[in-house]
Amino acid sequence: MQKNKAIRYLLISVWVGLFMVGEAQVGAQTRPTVFLYEQADVTGRDIVLGSIATIKSADEELTAKLAAVVVAPAALPGRSQRVTVGHIDTRLRQAGIDPRSLEFSGAPRVEVYTNTASEASVDRESVLEEIHPAPPVSVTPAVNTYTVVVATRNLARHHVLTQADLRLEERSGRVPATRTKVEDFLGKRVIRTVSYGSELNANLVEVPPLVETGKRVNIIAEMGNVRVSAPGRALATGGFGEIIRVENLTTRQIVQAQIVSSDVVRVETGGGVGN
């Protein structure tokens, strides 16, 4: 018993010496957990969090609320849509949920395939039409029209898009293979300057990184049920799960840390520390 206590005190002393932090949080994690799958299948127009992740929480009402959050529009039947933690982070905030109150694990991105059940329904209708063909009618050729998403104002580079920045506009001509909706762009940022009235597409936007260079973050290290933390500053930009260099603002040491959320990075026990 005395030997076990001595080992425990030694571990705590090593961590406190590394980060020069006086605060240690002991106890099991109580935050809700979201475990993201690598792949998932959905049916319908929307992808909800509960269809691409396992959600665990002591609060059943919160679990149901998280599961119902729409994180992205579904791809066309038979195709796939990639959903990243950046998508989920943005949609959670729009739903009034702070992503920092959750513990994410699993894959950093989910490849979501849309089932082709709707296509099977269309095939059955086609068979019925062949058995009972409709009488011929005279059809006047029509001009093909479609809608696109355009900017309602001039947008600066890295501007994060909101509903007020976008509107639908009707165009005529050859219908593009990929159709877009306003919801496809909400929460994303433009990668270059966009002029008023310009059409937006997937190549003009990106999901904002969780952590950018210079941002203040909280560095944590854990072993078992012991956690120590220290204030830090990101020295690189990165997304969920990526390893970046971070400066410990207490010791001025540089550490390699994994991005856990928009303001938390984790140092693996035994990870390298450099000057």
Structural write-up:
- The protein is an alpha+beta fold and 275 residues long.
- It folds into 3 domains: 33-114, eubacterium ventriosum atcc fold, CATH 2.60.480; 142-206, Alpha-Beta Complex (Type Iii Antifreeze Protein Isoform Hplc 12); 209-275, Roll (SH3 type barrels).
- Helices cover 19% and strands 33% of the residues.
- It is built from 4 helices and 19 strands.
- It has helices spanning 2-19, 60-67, 85-94, 117-131; strands at residues 24-26, 33-36, 39-42, 46-48, 53-56, 70-73, 80-84, 103-106, 109-114, 145-151, 166-172, 189-190, 205-206, 216-223, 226-234, 243-248, 254-261, 264-267, 273-274.
- Strands 14-15-16-17-18 form a 5-stranded mixed barrel.
- The longest helix is centred in the N-terminal third of the chain and has 18 residues, at 2-19.
- The protein starts with a helix and ends with a strand.
- The model is unreliable at 19-28 and 271-275 (pLDDT under 50).
